[in-house]
Amino acid sequence: MRFLIIFLTCFWSLHSYAFQVQPMVAELKPSGSNSQQRIRVMNNSNDPLTIELTAFDLEINKAGDEELKLNEEDFLIIPMTTIVQPGKTQSVLVRYIGDPAISVSKSYRIAVDQVPVDINEIKQSGVGMSVSFRTLFNVVPEQATAKLLVKEKQLEQAGVWKILLENEGDKFIRLSQAKWLFKNQEEQLLLEGEELSKALSGKLLLPHSEREVTIEVPAKFSPQNSQLEVLF
């Protein structure tokens, strides 16, 4: 018997699956009334849906790969496991209960996993499928700010730049929510919104970290003869 798990993060939008999760991205404060968020799980199928929620620390290495570590201490999740009836919506409370005195923002994945319960169906088909949403939760202290540096830029291949970015600040940066301005001696190009999201490989830069990203840029803009500003 094989088992297939489909992972959906805040950067994917697949509406054809049996359930949906909102919001996929949330920003919390370390304490007070804004330290919690309700996640809504909508069951669009004709069958009861069993889900389980789990919190993970989120780290991103220089190459842009995510590293998740189970965190059972920083969040209170009520309920952690529940059954959502067909056509219904279940609200789940997610409250940050970690260190209230953090000075640097912290990023987490709150996983919403479908728990398979129909063993007979899996045995008959030989394949089980489970959908897992990976929401993004950022806990941000007051006065935290980001500071972005473009450290290196080079041509990865025709029409694609490789860029090394560094965030010297205390707050995460959602790179796909910024405005990327390319300039050469003749003209300039502004990428933002959906167009930027499609062109950019990396979407998140954590505080006090570096990462490489690639971005599709018209060939008339070369890394050697063009300037790049990332505005956020």
Question: What kind of sheet is the major sheet?
Answer: 7 strands, mixed
Q: In the CATH hierarchy, what is the superfamily of the largest domain?
A: Immunoglobulins
The average pLDDT is 91
What count of helical segments does DSSP give?
Answer: 2
Described by the principal axes of the CA atoms, the overall outline is globular
What's the CATH class of the largest domain, please?
Answer: Mainly Beta
Number of domains: 2
CATH topology title of the largest domain: Immunoglobulin-like
Q: Which percent band covers the strand fraction?
A: over 45%
N-to-C SSE string, H for helix and E for strand: EEEEEEEEEEHEEEEEEHEEE
Structural class: mainly beta
Number of strands: 19
Radius of gyration: 20 Å
Question: What does this 3D model show about the protein?
Answer:
With 232 residues, this protein is mostly beta strands. The protein folds into two domains: 2-139, Sandwich (Immunoglobulin-like); 148-231, Elongation Factor Tu (Ef-tu), domain 3 (Beta Barrel), CATH 2.40.30. The protein is 6% helix and 53% strand. The chain contains two helices and 19 strands. It has helices at 119-125, 193-199, and strands spanning 2-9, 19-22, 25-28, 36-43, 49-60, 66-70, 75-78, 81-84, 89-96, 106-114, 127-139, 148-157, 160-167, 173-174, 179-183, 188-191, 204-205, 209-216, 227-231. Strands 1, 3, 5, 6, 8, 10 and 11 form a seven-stranded mixed β-sheet that branches. It has a four-stranded antiparallel β-sheet with strand order 2-4-9-7, with no helix packed on it. The protein has a three-stranded antiparallel β-sheet with strand order 12-13-18, with no helix packed on it. Strand 12 (148-157) and strand 13 form a beta hairpin. It is globular. The termini are far apart. The model is unreliable at 1-5 and 10-15 (pLDDT under 50).
